[in-house]
Design goal:
Length: 425
């Protein structure tokens, strides 16, 4: 149970000092209006004690890493039974895909190309499976990792630190270097931010693939989460966590860790670090989770390769007057014939034939209507509702289901292939 905020001013420090303290506390309380109450007692909302730090050593093989992660996951998750065990594990476990049609390796014993993919905050490797299969078809050795705190219970994000996420990425990179001649790195959201951090320092990485990169966060209140996590556990309402591929309940500490990660990236750029390697990035202008404008600005200022390619989806058809270095490609995300307003943060890495998040998939994103039963029911069951990002503008105009797949996914892959050909030159 988190400790309560005390409104008692201890000691006789003067009336002015007392009022200053009260104003600070009231400011924090006001900021807390967007946060949920104290920690609940459900096991899934408590740390499992098994998945907070990254403890694998350099000598651990990838196969052993996957097996040990599997055993940990079975012990930690509270929703696994005989009927769903393999579905849950396949969605959340790290995995490896070996190149199709390339049974032999290079003369030096390595695959020619490989990519390490890193998932996002509160997500799992499931969201990277479609991209991984595409890279596999293009002759890449593909691996994913599971960031500490993920794939088990939301409570495991209450104590995790972003430095352990960085350790996991560094471990994955070292292992890939032993098996591939050319290493690429990429990820979704927080995984993309971690990829940027690694790409600043490691000259062996040949290119970055960034989907919805979390280089800046849209909600500026995130700066307060370092204090707020001391007395609040969850951002917003505690959810049912029925999505087996990601957490629906979001920890305040997790928000604070992504804030610290973005501050670290900003500090590195300010100190003179640059991204000299080729970068492929995909963004939605209407993203309510990450600051797409900030991400584009950082890539414009600090990524200078002529092979860079940025794909920007926009629902309003707006284009900036000044284009960033490299190539930029705009695509409209307003598709009224499909009742799509724009593209959401979570939609970009997923094709619409995905069995879980796709158009006919089993999951429908309606968490924003938890307190409005009528709209929640329409969102869940009415196929005529519009889809898009859960922006205030969209929600004020109609009932909206959050879009969880990319209707222009194949076009994104065509641009990605163009980038890979350019980056390989």
């Amino acid at each position: 149970m988190k400790r309560a905020i005390s409104l008692t001013v201890l000691g006789d420090q003067g009336l002015a000092a007392a009022w200053r303290r009260r104003r600070i506390i009231l400011t924090l309380v006001t900021a807390c209006l967007f946060l949920a109450g104290c920690a609940a007692s459900s096991p899934r909302l408590q740390p499992s004690g098994l998945n907070t730090v990254f403890a694998f050593t350099e000598g651990t093989s990838f196969a052993a890493y996957v097996q040990q992660t599997r055993e940990m996951m079975i012990r930690a998750r509270v929703d696994i039974d005989d009927s769903n065990r393999e579905t849950i594990l396949r969605a959340n476990l790290p995995f490896e895909l070996r190149p199709e049609g390339q049974s032999s390796r290079e003369i030096n014993g390595k695959y020619r190309r490989g990519i390490l993919l890193v998932h996002g905050l509160s997500d799992s490797p499931y969201l990277l499976q479609p991209l991984a299969r595409h890279f596999q078809r293009r002759g890449f050795l593909v691996r994913t990792i599971l960031l500490p705190g993920h794939g088990t219970v939301p409570g495991d994000l209450l104590e995790v630190r972003w430095e352990d996420w960085r350790k996991a990425v560094a471990w994955g990179i070292r292992g890939m270097k032993a098996d591939v001649a050319e290493l690429y790195l990429g990820g979704f959201s927080t995984g993309a931010a971690l990829s940027v951090l690694a790409g600043m320092d490691d000259r062996d990485i040949r290119g970055l693939i960034l989907v919805s990169p979390a280089l800046g966060v849209k909600d500026q209140r995130i700066a307060l989460t370092g204090v707020l996590r001391e007395f609040r556990d969850w951002v917003g309402d505690v959810q049912d966590d029925v999505d087996y591929a990601k957490y629906e309940t979001f920890a305040v500490n997790a928000a604070y860790q992504i804030y610290l990660l973005t501050r670290e990236i900003d500090a590195r750029f300010a100190a003179g670090k640059r991204l000299d390697l080729p970068v492929f990035a995909v963004l939605s202008a209407e993203d309510v989770t990450i600051d797409a404008g900030r991400a584009r600005e950082l890539l414009q200022l600090y990524a200078s390769s002529p092979a860079n390619l940025l794909l920007m989806y926009t629902g309003k058809g707006e284009k900036p007057d000044r284009l960033p270095p490299g190539r930029i490609h705009y695509e409209t995300s307003h598709l009224p014939e499909r009742r799509i307003l724009d593209f959401s943060h979570v939609s970009l890495p997923m094709p619409c034939d995905d069995p879980h998040y796709g158009t006919r998939g089993g999951y429908r994103s309606c968490l924003h209507y938890l307190r409005d039963r009528e709209k929640w029911t329409a969102c869940r069951h009415d196929d005529s509702v519009w889809q898009g990002e859960v922006s205030k503008e969209n929600l004020d105009s109609r009932t909206v289901r959050r879009l969880t797949c990319n209707p222009k996914y194949e076009g994104m892959l065509e641009l990605l292939d163009r980038f890979l050909r350019s980056a390989a030159r």
